[in-house]
Write a structure and sequence with these properties.
The protein has about 500 residues and is of the alpha/beta class. It has 18 helices and 17 strands. The chain is about 40% helix and about 15% strand.
């Protein structure tokens, strides 16, 4: 699913109106119907307080209030007199609402006393829409803060009022703090960054029939990866395949106190379908690995406690390094040797990324399309400190282009930036996956896919998606609090099955 900016969204609306064809007011009615159905399905016998601004976002709110008037006689609509220009569609919906006898319609002018919001009623925010391009200040900002401080649950129509669609680095104004945001047709880029979670809450995408032709023709580097996209990436396994068909992966992981990282990454690699796995570990991990991952071939380092020597690399179809290897000088030397000599597709994680951050000259040895999988802290050490997720994403794009690599920036909506400047945001996963070893599992998954001849971009996107989907299955089974890295690995098979059976759901 493409992620478009505010102007592109308006252009898609115009194209739909002109070419479906459909009247603008009828497209608004279609959006209102989708919103009303969501509200009815989500809340049991609710009472609503609507705040409607002067634009089409306010028109949506008025139309929803009219549709919901059939279910409740206690809805209140506050129509805000913002500026001198009202949307024509808002005016028409205002006239229609005035004909409804059981809706209390109250006008608020700038400077009026703020209304008392009844406790327990659901607030529906339709004050400012996606076209807002300046911070909300003054009286209307104070009204937004009054709504936020009411203690009522808030549902935002399309976007929380005051939030910009894309870049909020200079947004110092008031912003609605919604529990749910009902985004029309597609997500907004700003929804995907941690700093905006207090405003967006949980967002839901409501299709309203915007022209797919218009969306397809819009150019954007930002993509929201959905399960159907992941399903299309999964390769069928030939009936006459053998273990050599699915590649031979090399995983360099673990150190004296971090053998578990090697176990987690190795198990995930094997459970993602590679044919053969060799794990390079220090001598101290020998018995642990033989017991915990009997399917793996072991390559034992010269060192008792750490990674220090590279392998004969010709026989491996993909290489992964980093989980739990530590950052000793011997390990740094071993990583430098590996980067210099390895021509196979590679995924680099954890301690290996921190070593790159400390010795940036090693970045020049990264082969094209190498995959780096930092979390935000590791990424900032690799680059510089960032104040916002949006700012970090811009650096992510720049670094992927400059180094000709793929950067997987882990977190909620994990983003995969490729050298062409495209960023794909993942939609699977949950907060239960914020647990020790989860990143090691992801490294094993991506390594396995690389060994099976997925392209680096495919391995990164599918690996992140499968990882999150397995975590979702684990959370649904036992709850987010129960999820561990091992739970994620244990559900990888079910995640693949779910993608293969999407058409049957």
């Amino acid at each position: 699913m493409k992620i478009l900016n505010a102007e592109q969204i308006r252009a898609c609306d115009r194209f739909t109106i002109e070419n479906e064809p459909i009247a603008s007011i009828d497209l608004m009615e279609r959006a209102a119907d989708a919103i009303a159905k969501w509200l009815i399905g989500h809340y049991n016998n609710p009472r609503f307080v609507f705040f409607a601004g002067a634009g089409n976002n306010g028109g949506d709110a008025l139309a929803v209030a009219r549709l919901l008037s059939r279910l409740s006689s206690e809805n209140i609509v506050y129509q805000l007199n913002i500026g001198s220009n009202q949307s024509p569609d808002l005016k028409l919906n205002l006239d229609r609402l005035r004909e409804i006898s059981n809706v209390q319609l109250v006008k608020i002018d700038k400077g009026d006393t703020f209304p008392t919001i009844p406790q327990g009623w659901i607030v529906v925010d339709g004050i400012f829409g996606s076209g807002l391009n300046r911070p909300v200040e003054g009286y209307w900002a104070e009204l937004i803060e009054h709504i936020n401080n009411s203690g009522n649950e808030i549902v935002a129509i399309d976007i929380p009022s005051g939030l910009f669609c894309t870049d909020n680095r200079q947004n110092t104004g008031a912003i609605i703090k919604a529990r749910h945001t009902l985004s029309l047709q597609m997500a907004k880029l700003s929804f995907l960054f941690a700093e905006n979670e207090p405003f967006v809450g949980q967002f839901h995408i409501l299709p309203i029939g915007i022209s797919q032709q218009a969306i397809d023709s819009a150019e954007t580097p930002f993509i929201l990866t959905q399960k159907a996209d992941l399903a299309r990436l999964v390769k069928p396994r030939p009936r006459f395949a053998h273990k050599g068909t699915f590649g031979h992966a090399l995983l360099s992981a673990g150190s004296y106190q971090m053998s578990g990282a090697a176990v987690l990454a190795a198990r995930a690699c094997l459970h993602t379908g590679c044919g053969l796995l060799t794990v390079h570990v220090p001598q101290s991990a020998y018995q642990i690995m033989q017991t915990a991952v009997p399917e793996a071939i072991l390559n034992i380092d010269d060192s008792q406690a750490e990674y220090c020597s590279a392998d004969r690399l010709q026989r491996f179809s993909a290489v992964g390094i980093g989980p739990g290897i530590g950052q000793s000088q011997q390990t740094r030397d071993g990583l430098a040797q590996l980067l210099k000599n390895c021509s196979a597709p590679m995924v680099i994680d954890a301690d290996a990324i921190n070593i790159l951050a400390d010795t940036p000259e090693l970045l020049n040895n990264l082969k094209p399309n190498t995959i780096l999988t930092p979390h935000p802290g590791e990424f900032d050490r690799l680059t510089h400190h960032h104040m916002t997720g949006y700012e970090r994403m811009l650096t992510q794009i720049e670094l992927a282009k400059r180094l000709n690599v793929i950067i997987v920036l882990k977190g909620a909506f994990t983003s995969v930036a490729t050298p062409d400047g495209t960023v794909r945001f993942n939609t699977t996963g949950n907060a239960g996956m914020a647990t020790a070893g989860s990143g090691d599992v992801l490294t094993g998954i991506i390594l396995s896919l690389l060994a099976q001849k997925y392209t680096s971009a495919e391995a990164a996107v599918l690996g992140v998606g499968i990882h999150g989907l397995a975590g979702d299955i684990a959370a649904r089974t036992d709850g987010m609090e129960f999820v561990t890295a091992s739970n994620i690995t244990d559900n990888l098979g079910k995640a693949f099955l779910k993608l293969k059976n999407l058409d049957n759901e």
